[in-house]
Amino acid sequence: MVEAANDLVDACEKQTIPERLQALIDDIVEESPHENNEPISQHDAHRFVQSLAGHLKNWVKDQQGHSSAVRFDDDAFALAFNHFLRCPASYKQMRSDDCLVRPSESLFKKLKKDIGVEGGQSFNTAILQPFVRGDNGREEDSAEASAFMVDGAGLGVNWSVDSKWRSGCGSEWGEVACDEATISQGMVTNSKNNVSRGITNDFFELRRVMSNITDSDTIESMDRPATKVNQWWFRATNGRMFCVMSFFNAGSLSGDVILRQLIAVIMACEAVGSRVFLFACDAGGANQGTFKSLRGNEAIPDDMVWLDDEYIRFINPYDPSRWIYLTHCSTHNLKNMRNRVKESKADGSKCFLDVNGNIITWDFVNQIYNDEQLLIDGTGTPTSGLTEKAVYPDRWSTMNAQHAKAPFAPKALFVMLAVIHRELNVSKDEAYRVVDHYKVIKELEVIKNSGMNEKAARMIGYFTTVAKRLWDLFNARCPGNLNLAGKIATFEFFAHTSEIYNLRLLKMDELITWANIKVYKEQAKKNLTYFSDLHLAMIKRRKDKKYSADWRMTGLPGCTFDILRITVSGFFGYAEYLFQLAKTSPSLPESVNRDFAVTPAQSNTSFGESFFSWVRARGLDNACSFLVAVLNTAMIDMLKNSLDHNPMYDDEDVGKVTKDANRLGIRKIVTILKHLRKVVARLIGEYNEKSEPYASPAAAFSPGAVAFAQDEGILPSDDEAEGDEPGDEPPPPARPTSAQMGMIIIERIQEKRKLRNGFASYLLERKSFREMITVTMGQEIWPFFVSVLHDTRELDVSKKFDTACRLIMDKLLGMSLNSVLRNSRGESYEYQLFHFLSSKEFAEICFANLPTDAMKYISAGWVFLGLELSDILQEWLVIEAKGVRMKLDPDLFNASRTLQLGPEELKSETNRFGGWAGKSCMARRSKYLGGDAEKCSKDPQYRLLDLIVCYEKDLSEDYVATKVEFALYLSNYAGEGGLSFVAEPFFDALISIMRVVSTAVTLEDFASNNSGDVWAKGKNLVSLSSNLLSDFSLACKRQVDIAQEADPTFPDINHAVIAKVYTDVVTKICNARFGAVEAAYKLRASLKGDAHLSFRGMLFASVEGSKKKSDTDDVNEKSASPGTITLPFPGDRTAVGKDFLKGKRIVICGCYEEIAEIALIAKAELRSCLESFGAKVGVSLTDSTDYFLAGKGTPPAKIKKAQEKNIRIVNLNRMLRLLRGNLKDFNAMHALHPLDKTSFTDKNYERAVDEAADSAEDAGVEPDADDEEDFATVELDADKVRAKAARVAKIGAKPATYAEALKQTPPKRNHRRRRALAPLTTNAQAGDRGAAATEVRTQTPPQQQQKKKKRRGGGRKKRGAGPSPATSPSNSDKKAKAPRKESKKKKKEKK
């Protein structure tokens, strides 16, 4: 027995942890006390055991102190990552409370940053598909392309034309689909890399944008917060699907933009072997416009039942030898049909009629539902399956697909049939049953050849056949019963609808094959014939006077009938085309065989709704987190289950969902994308090193572009533009016509758009073209891009490549001008581009002019090249059009931006913020380059910043006189300081930026939103504004051209560099400006009254803060409002010289309300003032600090630290008196009573005021004998006077250290006595009732007399002339002080 026990122990020790856990689960199952237990899935048990084993290993490692050694499987990591995305705070709390070891938040933050998912034309998900599918090799017909490995080792191999490139069968066949969803608005900006999310990044409609720029009186912004996303998917015939691209918009999606999105999505899918044969979407207005463009803007004939191929397919731009079919979502169409017919009732807005004029009414459905409710009350059982929401749908249940199916379901039709049989008195033997129908159709030849069994064939055409028999019975038995005729007409309408949707396109358990497609297609044609007859009958009623203008109410709208025909004809055309290719193609993908089947699920987009439900359930339905969900491969496992929480759609409509062959975790995805992009960057770096430079820049357009446009009639000829005779030339209009604007734009583009090293070099600098290279790497069209990367290094090949690109650009330019200027047929630029890339003309240009065989024969590469050149042209057109319009109508651009600052203030802030931002970016870039002067001279960013920043010595006299604000000029020591300015060529662009920055964020924004959201919103609206960026780009391009002509070594500045510099500079400007606004909001929020705040530049101390006072008001009353004193400057009246504070280090801290209400501005002005007198101003206390200039509210800890370091503490009042000359020297200021932490509280703070240097003490002169009579006003007895004199003598002696000075401070028990001796403070002057009272005893009689007069003057002020509510004490304080004044006066009178 002992041996057996040892053997058992050894066996257990040999088991792995998962095996032991599995054995434990088996033991628990055996010990279960419950009966009738359901079996446990082996897959679920395996997943659960592996998860537990992983958690167990990680827990042990963590407990042993090896937390860095923990490892997480993909499932556990994905679940934790989803939790973190949903709510980081919740995940952090769960991680701290749970005993399980989970990934850290910092890891997820880094991972989220590294993902780099972007909206718009992003190829990230397409790049991953070969890895996800597990492709083992390349196509046979492009085997030589596989020599070009990912590491770039095969770049030297030339592609052979003998292979005669053609697109292969690919790795999978399927469809692309799109759907638009609403997302929650939100913007996020990463301040470290200036990447912003939550902004629209869709393609723009060129015609609308250009028309707005050239003709409109208001310039619209192209960058707005995203509120909707148009998501694209690819779905294979085997059920595998993935997200392709996501395009954010602000609710203005048009058919032309969808057309541009479509071609990008098709090229991305085809490039990675996902062959596209169908395009499916709902029938929204924009999608209908796209379908119309794809069929050449041709209207569908009304009398065409089954649509011809020209209306339901278009040429595949990737491979012109293949077709892509069109279909609308069957689920959306069924809801549309239900919504139309339910309005045809007694109290409805429509009255549908069949071909014989019988009413098709929804009242029949209401009757069946109401009768069944009576059966329920009588303990009967309903059989129709109708519910209240299906019969009486509200606005919410109208969108529910299950409710839309119910009225057309076979159960409901059988109940309708039973009611009609009862009213026709049809016996059971006379009824036409399903069995009878099958006996008839099974003998048909087409049914025999299909191989369909009874279950699949018995319902084909049954209900429509019954409807015909009902009409025969009706005509024979009761032809005059109009009510019964309406019920039969309704049944017939519902029967044909059911056979199209419920029994075919939405019946997922019956697949469409090569054998049965003929049967299904013939039945669909019969159904469409019925609806065609209804539609033609409705059109005939248009001429019938009986119906007048209501003929449209008698049938389905024309658009609904078109959608129905496109859906049915397009889907069956797609299935037939796939079957034909499967029979004839020499090779097939692994997921396709010769006899494969097509699922009806591909006729709807319910899988898209499943994806949106999955996203919403995890809280990722916002513009910032949505893109992370796109890359999450865990979505596939939960796609169908996500509809459990979304009753709007039926999970059965989703169809089969196949998992990927290789499950890639989010970390693997990031690793793959990073590696591939590094490879591409290395290849481009090798190109830049080895390519031959151009002697002179290459033109981007042909010299005859204007002549070409004139020959085509797009632009007027020279004679038409200039007139027949010079004398007859009309005066130029105030605004040029569209044709004249087009002429100016073309001339500017021809003149300015020069490519330093040709098109190849320019394309490789663009991020979008680099992504095209990445997505095609190792695929069948990879040799095309290899040729661009390798062959164009030679100068002659590069110039031939330029010729081909130039011809394409000329064509695209003509199409753009035709769209914007002439546009006689309503053809948009996107429409022309789509058909041009598939045209014979485009193919001839590329084949005849591209220099290498790989470029000539790989036609898919032509399309990628054409798309990139089109995007370049659109960017140039928008920039040049704005430049022309700005030059012709500059007030328009200024009017579109609200001007909040005054002209002088705007100049000041533009130079101050713009110059500082540029200089700061230069210093940052220099540090990044290691401070190497040679590297800086070759760095494009540094050299561009160097053009932007200058100093006053570099400015012209006219610039200083007109664009440099005078106060800023003074703060720069009249030109002798080191303040940086904005260079004159960039001033207009920077001042435009400053206008927008000053209004992007307001006080109201902080009052109604979170601070972080306000900053993100303002920064995005400013930094991503295409108006400002285009202005800045124009200025940069001009100056770069000038610099390159003067200095041949000046580096080439491309658009990416300009955009980076623009973002860096604007971000710094925004940070400084928005911080001031937020500080102002916080200040205003703490005030009791209204605060009239404004934002001023340096030395703009005057604000319209309080109400204007009369001239008789006291000086102290004038100084009661914050921000009402004037800082001195060297040479001002009695002020000291500019070197007075030289060698002194002063630290400032606290709030200086006397200078400005905004703390940031107050400190900036004070710093400038002190520096103008030669001081060095800092913020931290060190041993070298001479003075600590403390303001109101200075933290006591700061003051204590200054005392410990023996740093003399002064306030603003004493420092300004010293600088104004009111104090003789530093010793006079040192002789004043020392200040401590109580001197800077709200109660004791001694304010600085504007005062003249006319007192004897301030001037440093001994008092006159006549002034001694002022001591009588205090009325002190002899003992008090002697005590006061002793204290004055003691305080007058200068202490050795600051600590000794503090010891000389009178004890606190005498504070009340000193307050009694001190002059009473007014409401406008919050004096220091402790230290100030002692200081009164050191003042000379003239000064006391002066304060006496001020106090009397303040007492006679008029009512209402007091200080602003923001600074005056409360009314309760005033009432409490008034009796004290009166009681003291009475005591004095009695004495």
Automatic annotation (TrEMBL):
Residues 716-740, 1298-1391 are annotated as: Disordered. Residues 1306-1316, 1346-1360, 1382-1391 have a biased composition (Basic residues). Residues 1138-1222 form the BRCT domain. It comes from the Eukaryota. Residues 717-728 have a biased composition (Acidic residues). It holds the Pfam family BRCT. Residues 1372-1381 have a biased composition (Basic and acidic residues). This is BRCT domain-containing protein. It comes from Thalassiosira oceanica (Marine diatom).
